[in-house]
TrEMBL record, chains A, B:
Pfam families assigned to the protein according to its UniProt record, in alphabetical order: Dyp_perox_C, Dyp_perox_N
The name this protein goes by in its record: Deferrochelatase
Record keyword Transmembrane present: no
Catalytic reaction annotation: heme b + 2 H(+) = protoporphyrin IX + Fe(2+)
Boundaries of every Dyp-type peroxidase N-terminal domain copy: 52-212
Molecular function per GO: ferrochelatase activity; heme binding; metal ion binding; peroxidase activity
Region named Disordered: 298-317
Enzyme's top EC category: oxidoreductase
GO-annotated biological processes: iron import into cell
Localization: Cell envelope
Record organism: Nocardioides dokdonensis FR1436
GO cellular component: cell envelope; cytosol
Cofactor dependence: heme b
Function, in words: Involved in the recovery of exogenous heme iron. Extracts iron from heme while preserving the protoporphyrin ring intact.
Length: 421, 421
């Protein structure tokens, strides 16, 4: 992929008009321009809509995720920040600069309102998805920070401690989050960096995570990618083309939490930084690896047979008085059948963050799941994994966070408008 | 870019034959297959040749760089490792698995000889470039480790301490290095991870660095990309299409160091992890930013006028009794005119590694330069920057390493064959 020659400002002029007026529905309808360019550099997804983009949007290849703490004590400053972020996000997801002036225009006596490193890169399918953490509602002592405490969703609490959690507080929690996904990592980094810049004096970065390879598909139009265990991951993911399943498993309904009706049309984002002990994994026999997962490494088919998307037969008898899919196989432990039908929309990414203290790579899966209620969908599955999953021997959970992701942004409104009105 | 459907093993069968027999010349001739696929996923560069690939090869978009320490004391084990790495590198750069069996074939009772996460991703223009650090020749006490001490190049010493160096020893030095570049970061990560796996018991990872966006062009066929200051970088780079300049500035000649004639046809790789204080930079007026660099932010043209590739006029008078290009402008301080014509082949990458302690991004430029002699090309330029460069206020050097990069690998030989024979 070469750097394109169309400036981001030029692109705005050319395609901005086409972006307006795209209605909700599921995510594929957000794709308003995919013509021209190389590798989807000109693909744009509308920022405004019934739901936020970056959830059912076909999972882009690259991620930059940031969690921030709010440092201002002023509700007005917080709202002003969300307004400014909304305007900047709408521009950047169209492929334009973060500000109205641009990276190289305007006064030589002022800092540019865009940092410039994405000039010429196109929108690259950028989506920006915003979330609110528990700390936005109450501080560590339970005090109401911004007059929002009585609107805190019941389900929006710090995740409980799970077995195998060795959380680094510098990689966990946060008052706000932004998930930036794009086909070009420099576009995702540029967007996050400019949102941080805009937030100067009102927010500070708590932690930040890059992901280089998606590990889930969110559309039936996508192949299932592979995680760093070398296996296809998230085969049973809720997909954009399943509107009924999205309503059941992803989107918060108005009646779900009457005190937090502002979250209707939104969802919860659970983030978990999962270090994988790859050096140990790589020394396991192929048969053991497949037994731990419960799927064939090549095709992704369940060990009970068929193809990748064939339903696993958990009762199929195997040798040695057990089933073909072992009792502690990952696919069985996390399967919706074991959790009252609960499903998630997963949107995780592989990461490598340098080196660990053991002479290996600090690497693994940055797990992201969108769920309608973490108490019934995410937490029980995580607990079941901790109790029973053969994979746990190869996992260490080093980061954890939960955010409420408000519904999409309507014209004239800002991110999270309903929460503040 | 979606995950392709061509298996890496299938690709090997289809294109492996076309790879053989490609001769030296400059890097573009290495491109033996660029047809089909999306985003160059099927682009392959021959591993063997007069020079190692990954130097003059048109700079790929993504980087995974690893520095390793040798833990064995056996020369035979070290040579065996280089032989195994050579075989694996040749396979992986063709788009095949790391081992002859493959990620999902062979015995269920044995670990696979490939970790599997790159199944279906194609070669993606992967290059693997190997280097030898000073520690391979003598340990910290000056002892000859592998019978190589008398072949250590005079120029291969730990880089001196430079002003503004705040080096993290966990991000510096190393006995061996591998630079993996590819269009798809998962392909680069997969390659490094498998080389580490193959090295188990003989090497341990010292440090590892991902880069998400190239900051240099190594071919006139490429646009000049932008660093995280938002500026075009490396405009004056030595390019693949300049064979005379490559001979003068990049490739070591046999007469350069008679005791290290094994390095003829090779080069030196200087790596510097440069943290950029982006939050401070972003608050500087556009005019100041351009004055610090000496170029226009939009076009990349020198402030003395023209276009990006116009030669800067360092004498052009400006206002206030000084020149248009300030005495401390980066472009002046590092320009070949200030260093007896010395040029470098730069091949750096932007990075973001999470968060720093100040509530900002741990981000910057992972600088890589290939030079014929670091003593006359890299070190003087670095010292001049430290003394005079307006940019220094925004830079902190947190990692540093120097490696000798042997010549290309001929048929029947392994990486660094001449050093050990």
């Amino acid at each position: 992929m070469s750097v394109g020659r169309i400036s981001r400002r030029g692109l705005l002029g050319g395609s901005g008009a086409a972006v307006a007026g795209v209605a909700g529905g599921f995510a594929l309808s957000r794709e308003v321009e995919a013509a021209g360019g190389i590798d989807g550099t000109t693909t744009t997804y509308a920022f405004r809509g019934a739901h936020q983009a970056g959830i059912t949007t076909p999972a882009q290849d690259r991620l930059h995720f940031v969690a921030l703490d709010v440092t201002t004590e002023s509700r007005e400053e917080l709202v002003a920040l969300l307004e400014e972020w909304t305007a900047a996000a709408e521009r950047m997801t169209r492929g334009a600069g973060a500000g109205p002036v641009g990276p190289v225009e305007g006064s030589y006596l002022l800092p540019p309102d865009d940092t410039g490193e994405a000039i010429g890169l196109g929108a690259s399918g950028l989506t920006l998805t915003f979330g609110f953490g528990p700390g936005l509602f109450r501080d560590g002592e339970g005090r109401d920070r911004f007059g929002l405490a009585d609107r805190q969703p019941e389900a929006l609490r710090d995740l409980p401690h799970f077995p195998a959690d060795v959380l680094d507080p510098r990689r966990s929690y946060g008052d706000l989050c932004v998930q930036a996904c794009a086909q070009d990592p420099q576009v995702a980094v540029h967007a996050v960096r400019n949102l941080i810049r805009i937030g100067f004096g009102r927010v500070s970065v708590r932690w930040s995570q890059l992901g280089f390879g998606r590990t889930s598909s969110t559309s039936t139009s996508q192949d299932t990618p592979r995680n760093l265990f070398g296996f296809k991951d998230g085969t049973a993911n809720v997909k954009a083309e399943e509107p009924a399943a999205l309503d059941e498993h992803v989107w918060v309904a108005p009646e779900d939490d009457p005190d937090a009706s502002w979250l209707a049309g939104g969802t919860y984002l659970a983030a978990r930084r999962i270090n994988m002990t790859m050096e140990v994994w790589d020394r396991q026999p192929l048969g053991d690896q497949e037994a731990f997962i419960g799927r064939a490494k090549g095709s992704g088919a369940p060990l009970s047979g068929g193809e990748e998307h064939t339903a696993p037969d958990f009762d199929m008898p195997g040798s040695n008085d057990t089933t073909v899919i072992a009792p502690d196989a990952h696919v069985r432990v996390v399967h919706p059948d074991a959790h009252g039908g609960a499903r998630m929309l997963r949107r995780g990414y592989n990461f490598v963050d340098g080196t660990d203290d053991l002479g290996g790579l600090d690497a693994g899966l940055f797990f992201i799941a969108f769920v309608r209620d973490p108490r019934t969908q995410f937490i029980p599955v995580q607990n079941a994994m901790a109790r029973n999953d053969a994979l746990m021997e190869y996992l260490r959970f080093t980061g954890s966070a939960l955010f409420a992701v408000p519904a999409g942004v309507a014209e004239g409104e800002h991110v999270g408008h309903a929460l503040f009105s």
